[in-house]
Amino acid sequence: MSVETRQMATESALADLLEGPPVLVGSPEDRKLSEDIFRPVWEQTRRGWLALFGITLGLTGLLFSAIAYTFAKGIGAWGNNIPVAWAYDIINFVWWIGIGHAGTLISAILLLFQQKWRTSINRMAEAMTLFAVIQALLFPMIHLGRPWFFFWLFPYPSTLGVWPNFKSPLLWDVFAVSTYFTVSLLFWYVGLLPDLAALRDASKSKAARVAYGIFALGWRGSARAWRHYRIAYLLLAGLATPLVLSVHTIVSFDFAVSQLPGWHTTIFPPYFVAGAIFSGFAMVLTLMIPARKVFRFEHVITQRHLDNMAKVMLATGLMVSYGYLVETFIAWYSGNPFESFVFFNTRARGPYAPIYWLMITCNVVVPQVLWWRKARDNTIFLWFVSILVNVGMWTERFVIIVTSLHRDFLPSSWAMYRPTIVDWSILVGTIGFFGFLFLLFLRFVPAVAASEVKELRRELEHERHQQSHDQAAHGS
Amino acid sequence: MSALFRPRSNTIFKLVLLLLVGGVLGTLGGFMVWARVPAGTGQQDPPLQPVQFDHRHHISDDGIDCRYCHTSVETGSSAGIPSTALCMNCHAQIWNKSPRLEPVRASYFTGQPIPWVRVHRLPDFVYFNHAIHVKKGVGCETCHGRVDQMPLMEQVEPLTMSWCLDCHRNPALNLRPLDQITAMGWTPQGDPASLAQDLMKRHDVHTRTSCTTCHR
Amino acid sequence: MPPLGSGAKLPIYGQPAAPDRAPADGRHPWRSLRVLGAGDGPSREFDEGAAEPPAGFSRRTFLQILGASTALASLQACRPARQKIVPYVRPPEKALVPGTPVHYATAVSLGGHATGLLVTSHDGRPIKVEGNPDHPASRGATGSLELAMLLDLYDPRRERGFRRGQAPLAYRSLLRELTALAASHLADGGSRLRFLTAATGSPLLQDLRRRILARFPQARFHAYESLTEDSAREGSRLAFGRVLAVRHTIAQARVILALDSDFLAVGPEALRLAREFAGRREPGPEMSRLYVAEAQHSVTGACADHRLRMKSSEVLGFARAVAARLASRHGHSQLAPMGATPSGSPAPGDVRIAKESAAVADDLARSSGRSVVMAGSRQPPAVHALAHAINAALGNAGKTVEYAAPAFDDTTGPASLQPLARDLAGGKVDTLVVTAHNPVYSAPADVDLGTLLGRAPNTIYLGYRDDETAARCSWVLAAPHPFETWGDARAHDGTVSIVQPLIQPLFESIPEVELLAAFLDLADQGAHRILQDYWRGRAKGPDFERQWEGWLARGVVPDTAIAAEAAAPHFVEIAAAVKAAPQPPAGLEMTFVPDYKLHDGRFAENAWLQELPHPVSKMTWDNAAYVSPATARKIGVEDGARVELRLAGRKVEAAVWIMPGQADDVVSLPLGYGRRRAGPVGSSVGFDAGPLRASDAPWFAHGLAVAPLGGAKHVFALTQEHFSMEGRDLALAFDAKAWSPEKVEHLKGPSPTMQEPVDYQNQQYKWGMAIDLSKCIGCAACATACQAENNIPVVGKEQVLRSREMNWMRVDRYFSGPPEDPQVIAQPVMCQHCEAAPCEYVCPVNATVHSDEGLNEMVYNRCVGTRYCSNNCPYKVRRFNFLNYRGDMSPTEKMAMNPDVTVRTRGVMEKCTYCVQRIERARIETRLEGRAIRDGEFTTACAQACPANAIVFGNLNDPRSQVSKLHQDERRYDLLHDNGTRPRTAYLARVRNPNPELS
Fold it and tell me: How many CA atoms lie within 13 A of C989 on its CB side?
């Protein structure tokens, strides 16, 4: 007995050394896990939560009043002009879509690769994804000059006898983004089912039980249900995986397919996907680090998780930097005067140069600190890095869209772009709306997939038994 | 503890789901149908006119050619609504006491035009030209129907863009000899197809589906 | 104004006069088939509410909303509400087919000189102004001013009705009161009666003037024009001993020396001279060479092969240097006395002038008889006289320049205003009739007309708008628009045109003819009868009616041009005058220049012109104190800095704009801005030069002091902020020596594409355009014509600052070379109608697509406004309705819309369509006749207006068409050819013809 425990101790120490901290601290009982994970749902509403909720609610109001104003006045309420016909609208769209990539990547791809460390973070990441995509979905609609005709973007048999233009990347966007949203929603919801059932069974009040009961779709946890559940979950994961790559690839086509210097680049698809994952993980960290602290999830969402995510950020950050490098090299190598002008004159030295250099700092320089384990272990520091990356990725879209547009082929039509108060309201508003949804999620749904964590615990114990058995076998 | 839901709540739940999905699809489908049925396109709905003008009577009984009143149909974009003076050409002599024609006489003597109610309306961004259609052999009847059977003028065709396009893409079968333009109930003698092809050549008719043909 | 007399038939241009036409009573020809409630503004004439001021929530809107809400109650709301059709009660002349436009010939006058016009009338509404090919001053071309007059016609803010003090007057009682007033002056022969008129060549008005003077021998007429031509007048008197009008014909001129003369853009000959000038700008031995000596950067200067920068006051010295050289080197000894070689002082200016004048003189002499020296109306008489002398010496007189008796000989400058001012000050005037254009605003600084008007008991102002003068006059009578009244006018060469009304006056007004007639007890006869009576007496041969019809139909009265006469200059007097002229002093010089857009300020309320970019500076909604970079450095100011200009004790505030190519030590401020009472559009726009402009120096004055004021910079709204081409092959210009076809080889021909290009050769028509940069003078008349033809809205200064201007057609202007003395090139750019259009494949809803003939079509009603097409357009010629730029149009404003072009709503992209409405109209008309469209049978609005014939439009599948030939021209190149867009619009590189001795 004592031998085993000692062995186990050394094992874990060894594991610690090799693969960093564990994905689950200790091996808590199911009951203990349920309590810990469901506590945020049961406990009294916290003051801090209420305060944040109030703020985000206000910002949400700001967002929708800004949108209403835009509908009433027209796109002229924004700073857009000719030549800069796209600005904050598309910047925000691409930014949010990018952020919405981490969730599916974590849940689907890591699931297929059977990464243990996905388990306790996937729920939050998926929720984040969902809410980010909701923000993104606003923009294709509101950036139209005549939003009341948005349905012309869908192929349906109309009495006009005309169809959408299937050659246009914008149309591909419509399909890509809506598909992505649907699949992420299903994926998230299916994953949620067992926990909803658990909540139903554990709730005290009748109302809560009915509510959770309805959403639990009568889940009883029978072996049959579990089998179907697994298949469904795996299928959805398989479905979602290609989407992770396709969505941002198609979004990047909006630019790559055009002929504008600074947009017309073949490297955009991979470079956009990398950037998306980059910003997605940054946003997950931005949200998870405080949540983990507040709800005392440290033993479920361990250093190991943060560490891995930081590493992913570092990797994707390097890909993005490579993207910048190749873009610039090609601009010079192609010998196209317009291309090189954009990269060496407009961006680096033009009127918007500060934003360009801010982008370089946040996306290329800052992530390099993640090479050091100390940096990755310091959660506060990590949190700030993640925020800087979010900022950096926003400025990247600004540089791509506004800077390329404001000085293109004919100098006679060059002009500056200046955002209006409405532009800012919409940007801040979406952040508020995003936070608003996320707070609701934290309050009413378990932020960590309890059922999966329990499962994980059993897996881990099983492994240990295996190992100890092997040890014993060797010993004798 | 008692069961949270009764067995039939499953059925109710399924019903609710069905209603939600069906409702959405139904609404969309409803709009699509509405855009195609007469009620939506405004067919078969003759408005009341300030003067009880009877096309049937003037065409069938009096045998007046369309062009006698709609004078600019062969020269201008608009077919032209007859001036009060034109009405009075005849009605100064006949029915010159009829109370039904009081508004016409009033208009003639006061100089106040008669406010007819428009029956065939195209959107303002559609530039339709009567002259060219008539010249190419599209008869009045093709778009306006059997006016000789209309006591009150009504719209018989949907006048939707796809309806226009049907003919603009394949005009052949809607053509007739120029001397039959205003004829009502004309049917081609012999093989319609061959006549159509012949007319296409004779009238030098092309398919015109460029947007600026109608939208400028 | 009473309805036009029963004789009022308006023969249609290009149609034979039809005397058998049914007599139309005055009202009905202007009635039309009207569709109430239609969106794209068909005629609202006489609709309910037409007389109301444009209110935010008028009765009409209320009724609409009421109707809409009731409609909503029923399912019918899913269908548009029923409209009404209102036919004629009595049909008009046969010629008027509803929906088919017709052209009427008429004329408008500026500064007393007429330009013949053809006005397109659609269902009785004038909607477009075009040039009359038969008129000597137009030759089918139009300038921005004439084109924009249409907007004034429908301006709801124009003066309406009549008032005495504040009391409104009815037309009849007005005539009664005027007649009575006239009678009161009979006693003393009108010694206390004065008239202040504009310069006018109208035979009828001059005749009325004679008859009034006959009735009131003591009365006086004074003519005043802010942009007076007195110095030209005095110059001819000086040179020839009598006043002669100068006519230039440069079609044959090889060398042109413009002494501060902006002859391509300003003045009664501008349209014709621009065409003649452009006719000789193709490279080759016959190519002309243009020297321009000027201070401010003018349109003509931008076209010059050599632009000789100098102060306005130095021009005389330069001309004398030229004369001296001609005398000394080329044996024109008669020029010797007036010549003066520039002092050999080492001053760089003198050295430069010596070099340049020598080269110019030699060049002039080399092509004696085929050269011409032009003096600008801003220059003093001595310069004009000297120009006459040089032309005579070179034997140009009678060839490139002719002299003839003027169409009218009034002094129109300060000289004619001063006696009136004296009489007013002396209280010698009881009644003053003012028909001049807002003289209170434009009077010289030393004549305080505003106050003086108060001295006369009866000041009667016939004005088109409620302006500064109206505020000071006791009677204010609304004047009709030139398109609303009968009259006549004379062109610069004397050719008479009958001015015929195209529409019933929209608001109550009285034409000048009737106002003057009131002083002859003829007012009640009406302008039409008075006019006919006058001309009946002068018609040659019998059947006046038939001749009359002919005059109206053609727009000109035949053989009314004044014959040229031989005139020999008196060299001695000229020499004396030239020598007497003062030496140009050093220091800052103030120059006043006529504005290309607001003229003398009378167009301040014309939004089209306010928003039209200044041809050289690209400035909208403003004027500025233009200075050269060096001068700016010297004063220590930069763009937008507020300065105080002090001149002879008077001062005005203005903002500086640094203009490359401006002469050093010169501050030039365009006239016509800074209006204080010009409605919401024109009030306090720009800076008023008037307070600095004295009678003794109406055009330029020395002794200027400039004091920077500091404080917030003035914000100028320019449509083009970047003036360098960044070394890209955009607007190409070569010196004749350096030019060879290889220079543009890489910018034409097929470019590699992934897909097989669509072949449009087998189509019947393949529309294309060619723009010859050698001919283009950059006057921007094309832009105004486009605005009028295509219902393009005006967006206002704030939106221009956000670079959201809507003009489909812009004239790009690039500088090259040193900023002190750059070379300029103008390049009109509109949709290039690429055969491989980048805008098309990105539109998600197929709102912009290709026609079977390869036109790049924009379908407004399909556009949802993603603006992707604009992002992907390398030429950035697409315009987006960011806001509802139309707003609530007043009933009259709706009448100005061209019914053939959809009025775009908010949120819709728009762009140049190659005037597809004209293409389709021509197609239908010709197909009705069963024939093909002939080359030149119709053209786009821009090409039609262009005075220089720089824009040519036509069918590229017709090898004989002019545009096809130009597309084959060796100078042809494509804009941004490397992009592989294969534009249908081709550019012809500009070739300059500099003098080797000066390069």
Answer: 26
Mean pLDDT over the full length of chain C? 87
Instruction: Say what the pLDDT of residue A216 is.
Output: 87
Q: Which of A409, A416, A422, A423 to mutate to test the interface with C (most CBs of C within 10 A)?
A: A409
Give the three-class secondary structure for C284. coil
Q: What distance lies between CA C222 and its chain's CA centroid? A: 26
Chain C residues whose beta carbon lies within 8 Å of the beta carbon of residue B123: 80, 861
Question: Using one digit for the tens of pLDDT, what is the confidence trace for A123-144?
Answer: 888 889 999 999 999 998 899 9
A161 interaction partners in chain B (CB closer than 8 Å): 160-162, 165-166
Q: Which amino acid is at A437?
A: L
Nearest to B4 among A157, A162, A209 (CB): A209
Q: Which of A150, A259, A418 sits opposite C979 (nearest CB)?
A: A259
Which H or E element spans position C2?
none
Instruction: Count Cβ atoms within 10 A of the Cβ of residue B210 and give its class: 0-12 exposed, 13-18 middle, 19 or more buried.
Output: buried
Task: Name residues 110-129 of chain B within 8 A of C (Cβ).
Answer: 111-118, 121, 123-125, 127, 129
Nearest to A218 among B10, B161, B163 (CB): B10
CA angle C612, C616, C618 (to 5 degrees): 45
Q: Distance between CA C157 and CA C720 in Å, rounded?
A: 31
In 3D, which of A94, A400, A98, A92 has the Cα closest to residue A279?
A98
Distance of CA C249 to the CA centre of its chain: 21
Q: Considering the entire predicted model, what is its pTM?
A: 0.89
From the list B76, B85, B118, the residue facing C89 with the nearest CB is B85
* Beta partners for residue C670, in sequence order: C593
**Which residues between 19 and 78 in chain C have a beta carbon less than 8 angstroms from any beta carbon of chain A?**
none
C683 token code pair: 């009030």
* In A43-121, alpha helices (H): 47-73, 88-99, 102-104, 110-112
Distances (CA, A) of C881 to A144, C505, C913: 12, 33, 16
CA of B111 vs chain A CAs: smallest distance (Å): 41
For residue A212, pLDDT over 70 is answered with yes
C-alpha triplet C171, C172, C178: angle, nearest 5°: 90
Residue A409, chain C, CB below 8 Å: the answer is yes
Q: Chain-wide mean pLDDT for chain B?
A: 90
Please report which confidence band the pLDDT of residue C359 belongs to, taking 50, 70 and 90 as the band edges.
very high
Cα four-point dihedral sign C215, C216, C220, C224: negative
Return the bridge partners of C717, or none: C620
What SS3 class is residue A468? helix
Residue A146: per-residue pLDDT = 94
Q: Which helix (H) or strand (E) holds B155?
A: none
Q: Which residue has the tokens 């009961």?
A: A213
* Identity of the residue in C38, C917, C928 whose CB atom sits nearest the CB atom of B132: C928
Is the pLDDT at C67 greater than 70? The verdict is no
Instruction: Express each pLDDT in C957-996 by its tens digit.
Output: 999 999 999 999 999 999 999 888 999 999 999 999 999 9
**How close, in Å, is residue A463 to chain C by CA atoms?**
55
Closest CA–CA distance from residue A146 to any residue of chain B (Å): 16
Burial-class residue C393 by CB neighbours within 10 Å (0-12, 13-18, 19+): buried
Computed on alpha carbons and rounded to an integer, the radius of gyration of chain C in Å comes to 28
C864 touches chain A (CB under 8 A): yes
Higher pLDDT pick, C817 / C755: C817
d(C-alpha C118, C-alpha C791), whole Å: 19
**Residues of chain B with C-beta less than 8 angstroms from the C-beta of A158:** 32, 35, 162
As beta bridge partners, residue C620 has C717
Give chain B positions within 8 Å (CB) of A209: 4
Alpha helix ranges (H) inside C796-887: 797-801, 838-842, 868-871
Cα separation, C230 vs C444, in Å, equals: 14
